[in-house]
C-alpha cells in the first residue's frame, strides 16, 4: 500500500506515513489467506494468491488508493525471499445500514487497547474481560476526536456473541486480539463510520475490519 501511494501521490504518502508525527488513518483492510499456516517467521499459503479488502470513510482518499492500486497492476513487487504481483482491482459497494443494531463477524482481529501516556505503556483487552466494551468505546471516542468527526457515541455498545481470543503481531509486538461474532449498537451515522473505517485500534495495520451478517 505504501509503495502504491508513494508512486501515485507523494503528497498523500507524506501526509499519511511521515515520521514526524503519528497520523490516525481513516481506512482499514483485511487479507484473506487461503489455507494459511503460520510459523514464527513465515506464512505458508495453500495457493499462490491472496485477496485484500480495503475500505475508507474518506471517499477522496479512497479514490486515490483505487487509482494507486490500479497503477500497480501486473508489476512485480519484490519482498524478502519472495515477490507478489497485483492481478486485479475491483470495487464493491458497502451494504446500506438501516438498523441501529448489527450482528457482525470480524474479518481481522479487533484490538482493544488502553494507553497510559504517563509511562507510554499499553494494556490490551479480550472479549471475556468486563472492561472490554468500555475500552472499545473509549478507542472509538479517541478516533473520532483525532479525525475531527462529531458523532454521538452515547448509545454505542459491543457485546460478544461468539468471541475468540487470538494473539497477533502488531507493530513488532505480540498482542491480544479478538475475532468472532459480535453485536454492535449505535446510531446509523456511527455504524456507517465503523463499517468503513473499522473498529478498535491498529486498524490501518490490518485490524478491526468486519462484515455484516445480520
Task: Please tell me about this protein's structure.
It contains 5 helices and 12 strands. It is of the alpha+beta class and 214 residues long. 24% of the residues are buried. The mean pLDDT is 94.
What spatial order of strands do you see in the largest sheet?
10-11-7-12
Number of helices: 5
Number of strands: 12
What structural category characterises the helix and strand content? alpha+beta
What is the beta-strand fraction?
A: 25-35%
User: Which stretches of 5+ consecutive residues score pLDDT under 50?
Assistant: none
Shape: globular
Q: State the separation between the terminal residues, measured CA to CA.
A: 31 Å
Write the H/E string, N to C: HHEEEEHEEEEEHEEHE
In angstroms, what is the radius of gyration? 18 Å
Name the average pLDDT.
94
Helix content: 10-25%
Largest sheet entry: 4 strands, antiparallel
Could you give a short description of this structure?
With 214 residues, the chain is an alpha+beta fold. It has helices spanning 2-8, 10-17, 59-71, 132-146, 188-197, and strands at residues 27-32, 37-38, 43-44, 51-56, 76-79, 82-85, 101-106, 112-116, 121-125, 157-170, 173-185, 210-212. The strands form five sheets. A four-stranded antiparallel beta sheet has the order 10-11-7-12. Strands 1-4 form a two-stranded antiparallel sheet. It has a two-stranded antiparallel sheet with strand order 2-3.
